[in-house]
Write a structure and sequence with these properties.
The protein has 1006 residues and is an alpha+beta fold. The protein has nine helices and 73 strands. Strands 61, 63, 64, 66, 67 and 68 form a six-stranded mixed sheet that branches. A five-stranded mixed sheet has the order 69-70-71-73-72, with helices on one face. Strands 2-30-29-28 form a four-stranded antiparallel sheet, with no helix packed on it. Helix 6 runs parallel beside helix 7 and helix 7 runs antiparallel to helix 9. The longest helix is centred in the last third of the chain and has 69 residues. 39% of the residues are buried.
Length: 1006
């Protein structure tokens, strides 16, 4: 046993939680062991739990912390270090500080992750630290090899003769919940008289004294062989506050339920129930115990160095080999021999719980469970099964007979039917159920027999039961039989009814039937419920959750507990009703398995129910490793929200503390985030969700995983958020890291993006200029071709048509001269010659236009065209010009003139008008040309599609589109028609011409 002692004064911040129940045996608790192969440190001499939830371990190899899953060696900040590797004392304070004492002197405080040394020099003033106690004002008392020391306001004071403290060494110091300060020098126990600032001796003590508070308010001193109660304070005893209930010690403690735990008694771990140590009336031997773990196979090491109780009520034991934990199971196991199998379980009306097991060979035993232990019953036959009968008794099936038992009484026996020639002589009973008038017994290899009216009816009397797998009886006494090949039979008296695939039976083999609240059938393929005349499947949130149900227990609150191949399913009453009302609603259920104390795997071979609700409210289940029970009214719920911490952000293989780096280097694209939840009852059941703000659009549900990985991250600002839910559904607040940034590379920056946009724009502009030059060259080439073609046409018109026409006019003039002046023929011929001269003049003008010679202004050209087209008609023509005229390019002049001329021609030829108005308006942004008449207007069909066989309107529209102008042809509201041409002014500048046909109008030099 070590000579260094520690007191862990636990804290007021801890909420009350359940402790290890004194009513349960030690082997009923969940016992976990972490040794070196699990990463646990060895020789754990001190333990403490800080307010943030971390469990700290002081060892001979350094300081560690544990989150219930992983051990981490404490790594100080750069430039900081522990004063030694061998740690003897750890005390956590309510303000979050962790005080650290060393074997070879010195004292440190861990505050907000940073180390501070209050006794930085080894051996001066603090030597090897045994224990630490704190006053209300925060000052500290330290018991060490250098004496009893008081630390206050940064200075040290030694308790010496002035304090009436005789020793130069202090082995223990402790402040109890009555504000009394106790100290021991290894010979005497002293009490501080605060008024006089003097220590007064109270009693002699032996080696290694230790003070412990018990839940009833007494303070005990353990020294040598005895544990003795100290005198009560003047005001009487009062229970310690919750913080004191968590008090822990070097090798002994009282838990909050009053159990006394002792390490090394003389080896291993001992536990004494409250009634046991209270019987001593103020003193008991320190090895007093009701239970022991003192065999090598029971613990990783029988050398206990430290113990503590955490704020959730779990008991931790530090040994030479590592760390061990004792916690409550949800299910309390009832053990059976290791070779026991095929467990059947039932309870009779007197409250007696019965069980049968089988083992090697043909051994079958009958058991009664008394005070949580399975006690073997003496019988005169090998027994195989037990099942509850209709009258509240139990039917016990054995090798020779069926027995009816109730409590201590044997009510009746039914000898098994005699074995016939050729039958299996074993008489192995597989099931026995009782309905209104019969007992149905299945015997392996022989079939199903029926006990009716004092005799056995053989299988041949009910051949429909061949292939029977399970039988159950409902409250009305009807019997339900499950068979192979999707068959269910129901017997009501002598009336039989069969349900098959047509009635919804789709389980292949019906391995289980429960006819309690409703008729349920189960098999490999799940569970189905009878609704009216059909069975319908019960869907589950997880596909195989309802596979191989072998028992159903319904508690008074309506909750259902289903024993399945996966474990025990808890279905709340509201969730069951929801699925019963809605066939599509999946059944919500919580699974209990071996982590919760489930005994092995579910029993699926037995042909009897494997779960039931007892009279006292307990629920019993049978598994492959024994039986187990729990009381739904006393289920312990972990009400503490699991504190969540983000431990590290790892970038490039290097871990960083949250907030340590505000911005990571350019090019960072991978991130690992380690996080945890400090919940110690069932850390494997804690579920997490997280998200990376700046990337994730929603929460990621990741189960029990405690690390997040991100790849292909881009530059930007991020923040990691994480939350947790404990095994009982209590959620933690969401914890977030400080925001951090991934800096962009140069090519990921905004400047680079802007430069890229600028360069892209420049390239596009250069490509535009290149394309424009190419189009201009093509345009000039086409224009040159057109000009050459126009000149050829002009030469042809001049040299052929106009010359021939001029010759014809000369010959006609010769004829006219010969006619008498004033005669009617001479007058008509002179008029025809005048018209011919005009045609020649117009043709010459067209030739001049084709040669792009200097043309008259647009208004003058339109006026001349109107005069030519009028040809003596009485139509009045008026031309109006407004604005500053511009000279058009020859090409544009030609197109605009021809559109106006065609509009005039249509007005003269078809409108039957008395007046035609020509209007030219030169506006700042547009040239508007309008030709209006007061005639009959245009037919709507002609306005839309043109006159059949004529191309005037169509040609006008094509010319307008070719030069990029807008042409509107419409009827006027007052009568007549209007043709309006709008030409953007950007095409009108002198020296500019219209674009090539088929393209939008562009500016280009001639």
């Amino acid at each position: 046993m070590k000579c260094i002692f520690l007191l862990f004064a636990l804290l007021g911040w801890a909420a009350p939680a359940a402790a290890l129940d004194a009513a349960l045996r030690l082997d009923a608790y969940h016992h976990d062991v972490w040794s070196g192969k699990h990463g646990a440190p060895r020789e754990i001499d001190a333990m403490a739990q800080t307010p943030d939830g971390w469990l700290w371990l002081g060892t001979t190899s350094g300081l560690y912390r544990f989150d219930g899953v992983k051990f981490e060696a404490f790594v100080p900040h750069a430039g900081e270090s522990l004063l030694g590797r061998s740690i003897t004392a750890l005390v956590a304070r309510p303000d979050g500080e962790l005080w650290i004492g060393y074997t070879f002197g010195g004292l440190s405080v861990l505050r907000d992750g940073r180390l501070h040394h209050v006794a930085p020099k080894r051996g001066d003033p603090v030597g090897a630290t045994f224990s630490i106690a704190f006053e209300r004002d925060g000052s500290a008392w330290v018991a060490s090899t250098t004496g009893l020391l008081h630390y206050r306001d940064g200075g040290w004071t030694r308790a010496d003769a002035a304090w009436n403290y005789p020793g130069k060494r202090a082995e223990y110091v402790y402040r109890d919940h009555y504000d009394r300060l106790w100290a021991s020098d290894g010979k005497l126990l002293h009490l501080l008289d605060r008024a006089r600032r003097r220590f007064e001796p109270v009693m002699e003590v032996g080696d290694n004294p230790l003070l412990l508070p018990s839940p009833d308010g007494r303070i005990w001193v353990s020294d040598g062989e005895m544990v003795r109660s100290l005198p009560a304070p003047a005001g009487g005893l009062r229970p310690p506050p919750p913080s004191s209930v968590h008090a822990s010690s070097f090798q002994s403690l009282f838990d909050r339920d009053g159990n006394y735990w002792k390490g090394n008694c003389p080896v291993g771990l001992c536990r004494a129930y409250p009634a046991t140590w209270q019987a001593g009336k103020g003193a008991f031997h320190h090895r007093t115990s009701d239970e022991r773990l003192d065999q090598p196979w029971q613990m990783a090491s029988l050398n206990v160095h430290s113990m503590m109780e955490d704020r959730e009520g779990n008991l931790w034991v530090g040994t030479v080999a590592g760390l061990e934990r004792f916690r409550h199971n949800k299910l309390v196991k009832v053990g059976f021999p290791a070779d026991a199998e095929r467990l059947s379980l039932a309870q009779d009306a007197s409250g007696a719980t019965w069980a049968t097991t089988q083992s090697g060979g043909d051994a079958g035993h009958l058991w009664r469970i008394r005070d949580g232990l399975a006690v073997r019953e003496t019988t005169s036959q090998t027994t195989y099964i037990v099942n509850r009968a209709r009258d509240g008794s139990v039917l016990v099936g054995g090798k020779r007979r069926i027995e009816r038992r109730l409590g201590e009484r044997l009510l009746a026996t039914y000898p098994l039917p005699p074995v016939q020639d050729g039958e299996n002589p074993r008489n192995f009973v597989m099931f026995a159920v009782e309905d209104r008038d019969s007992i149905w017994v299945g015997i392996g290899g022989r079939g199903v027999y029926r006990w009716h009216d004092g005799k056995w009816l053989p299988p041949a009397s009910h051949p429909q039961l061949r292939g029977l797998l399970f039988a159950a009886v409902d409250a009305q006494g009807r019997t339900w039989f499950g068979l192979r090949n999707n068959r269910v039979l129901m017997r009501d008296g002598e009336r039989w009814r069969e349900f098959g695939e047509r009635e919804g039976v789709a389980l292949s083999s019906v391995l289980f039937i429960d006819a309690g609240k409703e008729v349920l059938i189960g098999g490999d393929n799940g569970l189905a419920v009878l609704e009216g005349e059909r069975f319908r499947p019960v869907p589950a949130e997880q596909p195989d959750l309802l596979s191989n149900v072998s028992g159903v227990a319904v508690t008074p609150d309506g909750d259902r507990w289903l024993n399945t191949s996966r474990g025990l399913l808890h279905v709340r009453a509201a969730d069951w009703r929801r699925s019963m009302l809605d066939a599509q609603a999946p059944l919500r259920a919580a699974l209990w398995d071996d982590v919760d104390g489930y005994p092995g795997g579910a029993e699926t071979i037995a042909r009897l129910p494997s779960a039931f609700a007892a009279h006292d409210g307990k629920v019993w289940v049978a598994g492959t490793a024994g039986a187990a029970w729990f009381d739904p009214a006393r289920l312990r719920r972990n009400a503490l929200a699991p504190p969540v911490q983000v431990q590290a952000l790892t970038v490039g293989g290097r871990p960083y503390r949250p907030g340590e780096v505000a911005a990571f280097a350019p090019g960072t694209d991978q991130l690992q985030v380690d996080y945890t939840a400090l919940s110690y009852t069932m850390p494997e059941r804690v579920r997490f969700r997280y998200r990376l703000v700046g990337l994730d659009h929603g929460w990621q549900e990741v189960g029990a995983r405690r690390v997040a990985y991100y790849t292909n991250l881009g530059p930007g600002s991020y923040r990691f958020e994480v939350g947790a839910i404990n095994e009982d559904g209590v959620a933690s607040p969401v914890v977030a890291t400080p925001a951090f940034e991934i800096r962009p590379r140069f090519y990921q920056s905004r400047w680079f993006a802007a430069l890229g946009v600028l360069l892209a724009s420049l390239v596009i502009y250069l490509l535009y200029l290149l394309r424009l030059a190419q189009v201009t060259r093509q345009f000039h080439a086409r224009l040159e071709e057109r000009l050459l073609e126009r000149e050829r046409i002009a030469r042809t018109l001049h040299d052929t048509f106009l010359q021939s026409l001029q010759g014809l006019i000369l010959r006609l003039q010769g004829v006219a001269i010969r006619l008498a002046p004033g005669s009617e023929a001479r007058t008509q011929l002179d008029n025809a010659l005048d018209l011919a001269d005009k045609v020649v003049a117009e043709g010459r003008d067209q030739v001049m236009d084709l040669r792009l010679v200097e043309a008259p202004s647009l208004d003058q050209a339109l006026e001349e065209a109107a005069q030519l087209l009028r040809a003596g008609d009485q139509v009045q023509v008026h031309i109006h010009t407004a604005g500053q005229p511009l000279r058009l390019s020859p090409e544009l002049h030609y197109e605009v003139y021809n559109i106006g001329r065609e509009a005039l021609a249509n007005a003269f030829r078809h409108a039957r008008a008395s007046r035609i108005d020509i209007e030219l308006v030169w506006e700042p942004r547009v040239l508007r040309i309008a030709v209006r008449d007061d005639g009959v207007g245009l037919d709507e069909t002609i306005l839309a599609h043109g006159r059949p066989g004529h191309w005037g309107l169509t040609g006008m529209r094509e010319r307008a589109a070719r030069i990029g102008a807008v042409l509107v042809i419409r009827n006027r509201s007052g009568g007549g028609a209007e043709v309006q041409l709008s030409l953007p002014r950007r095409l009108l500048a002198a020296g500019r011409r219209a674009p090539a046909p088929g393209r939008k109008a562009e500016l280009s030099e001639v």
